Amino acid sequence: MKQLIPFTKMNGTGNDFIILDHRDRRFEDRILKKIAKSTCRRGLGLGADGLLLLEPSRTEVDFTMRIFNADGSEGEMCGNGARCMARYAYVKGIGKEHMIFDTLAGHVEAKVQGREVSIKLNDPSVIEMKKNIDLELPMVWTYIELGNPGVPHAVVSFKGLQDTPLGELQALGRRLRYHESFPKGANINFYEIFEDNSVLVRTYERGVEDITLACGTGSASVAIALALEGKMKGASVQILTMGGPLEINIGQMVPKVQNIYLTGETTFVAEGWICDEAVEEFEERRG
Ligand SMILES: N[C@H](CCC[C@H](N)C(=O)O)C(=O)O
């Protein structure tokens, strides 16, 4: 057995991640995909929704964050992942309380205040309001991408969400996620307004291929859709996820939606070593 690489496991409101300090960029993308798939797998691996990598920045900012989903696909951005990454960087002395980092979707600004981390999300690059899903389903979706290229999100109103068995949502999410309207697939966010400015959200995540306990960019997409429909009172909304509450604040609506903040708690779960036996066909970058 060989100790391969130190890891930190964290969760942001129940969205859980394995974090690797990959500033030495010792693994090629092909291997990173394998590490993500093997270690995120529950039961046989550590178990997580995704693998987060802290890499050197190619620009002026503090560092770069990359996200590989549990199935090995690379995502553009991850809101809860970014909150965990910011806290990790702060605790490890890599970033200050206020930091800026790169993602495929664009720059993310973060503010760490104890366990609570607030991030400024990427501005939306695509908003398509209220399209029909298909003739069979009496549902409409709003499609939103945060960042450019952005994480794809469909927002779907769902009556009786709280009492709907997760298996049912999972089956519907899986079906919609591959819908032809979404060329790069989509995360499917089901929501129900709970009470004034409090919204229940359940997200079927692309790349995890399951309902996760919370999704940051998904929760923000729900808030944006509600704000555009005039269903939000004020600039802030509380999103009730299965992992706990998230707060979304929309700083500007006119002439376009921007300055969107995501705030919530982060938790350090464990630290240790990933062992070579856990990763199929592992190999390090040569030279
Ligand atoms: N859970 C993440 C989104 C991950 C995106 C991923 N599922 C993908 O579509 O590649 C969040 O908090 O924003």
UniProtKB/TrEMBL annotation:
Catalytic activity: (2S,6S)-2,6-diaminopimelate = meso-2,6-diaminopimelate
Subcellular location: Cytoplasm
PROSITE patterns in alphabetical order: DAP_EPIMERASE (PS01326)
A Gene Ontology BP annotation from the UniProt entry: lysine biosynthetic process via diaminopimelate
InterPro entries with a match to the protein in the record: DAP_epimerase_AS, DAP_epimerase_DapF
Keyword DNA-binding: no
Pathway annotation from the record: Amino-acid biosynthesis; L-lysine biosynthesis via DAP pathway; DL-2,6-diaminopimelate from LL-2,6-diaminopimelate: step 1/1
A single cellular component GO annotation: cytosol
GO molecular function, one term: diaminopimelate epimerase activity
Residues annotated as transmembrane: none
Catalytic machinery residues: C78, C215
The EC number(s) this enzyme carries: 5.1.1.7
Keywords: Amino-acid biosynthesis, Cytoplasm, Isomerase, Lysine biosynthesis
Chain positions of site Could be important to modulate the pK values of the two catalytic cysteine residues: H153, E205
Residues bound to substrate: N15, N69, G79, N80, N187, E205, R206, G216, T217
Biological function: Catalyzes the stereoinversion of LL-2,6-diaminopimelate (L,L-DAP) to meso-diaminopimelate (meso-DAP), a precursor of L-lysine and an essential component of the bacterial peptidoglycan.
Subunit structure of this chain's protein: Homodimer.
Membership in a protein family: Belongs to the diaminopimelate epimerase family.
Protein name (record): Diaminopimelate epimerase
Gene source species: Anaerosolibacter carboniphilus
This protein's encoding gene: dapF
